[in-house]
Amino acid sequence: MIQSNKGAISPSSNPIIDVRHIIKRFPLGDDEITVLRGISFTVQPGEFMSIVGPSGNGKSTLLNMITGIDHPSEGEVIVTGEPVHTMSENQLASWRGVHMGIIFQFFQLLPALSLLQNVILPMDFVKTLSPKQRKERALYLLDTVGLADQAKKLPAQVSGGQQQRAAIARALANDPPLLVADEPTGNLDTKTSEDVFQLFSDLVDQGKTMLMVTHSRSLAARLPRTLEIRDGLIYKDTKNQ
After folding, report:
1. Are 34 and 54 within 8 A, CB to CB?
2. pTM recorded for the entire structure
3. Are 147 and 119 in contact (CB under 8 A)?
4. Degrees to nearest 5, angle at CA 225 with 166 and 35
5. Rounded CA gap, 24 and 65, in Å?
6. In principle, which of 106, 142, 202, 207 could form an S-S bond with 7, CB 3.0–4.6 Å?
7. Domain 17-239 falls in which CATH fold?
């Protein structure tokens, strides 16, 4: 099990995600298109929440606002107490390194680096541990996700499910309180998807906050909370359990 104290935040704490009246417009020829139309919601520390909705209705755009990959046209995005919408790229890179782990649908592992080196990389950027400690932690995380015996292999030498588990280990490298996943099981078979989902559930049980975009309604229904986006608006905010 991955032991962590960072995620264990009191229920009375401020929201870990606070999205305030977000509007996002994109240019379209001589005109523009509005993708997000005034979305507001909060996520409390320790929540496990899914974002669902039809393709092209704003899910990925909303995730980009929360991770700082893009900025809103109007509104505010406060994540781990920081105004993400006002940060520069350098500020965002430093902030993400400590506060957020991002898990992508297509893994985004660097192909020329071993799984071990991929997991070490975020720690090299933050430099809070010695080189020896970084390697020890990376090996520990790979062992936790069942990849200790694959540590020296390149991403192309392991299966898609193993690549996704390595990507999860990398997201946990700096022990961030918040994990954000974009379709993390979209390219995995049923058995591997279940293993990944169980790993996420274990992390939330240990105090992490998890936000996951998924097309799977059945998977979303298993999470305590589901936010459904349609036409750039919150259609439903459902407590499933």
Report:
1. no
2. 0.85
3. no
4. 85
5. 9
6. 207
7. Rossmann fold (3.40.50)
